[in-house]
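G., the chain you wanted modeled:
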Amino acid sequence: MDADTNYWLIWVVYCLACAAFYWVWWKVTRLPRAPWISYSLRALMLSLMLTPWYANIEGNTMAPALMVFALDTITIGTDAAGRALVPLVLSLLMAEVAATGYYFLQRKSKKTVKTES
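Predicted structure as tokens:
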């Protein structure tokens, strides 16, 4: 098989595994009394699993940033781990902002429905 085909096949398998894990995570984080925590945990996990970053400095091959961070920390050291940690942290922050925004939109729409009734 061609290396490019293998690359996309690995990404498809990874995304399918992420979808299966996320489905279970969705069921586990169903917290009706704390919807903000549910939204937050779901957004953070999705961001953690699906944020891509360059697998090596010179190449253009992408890999999950969490894996790049872990492998850079193990093989090269903590100095090189920061290159994947920065986009991962930014992605986590944006996911948290999005989850909080979604929570307040849901809360506002529920208040509007209650006042109209």
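The first strand starts at residue 52 and ends at 54.

Shout if anything looks off.
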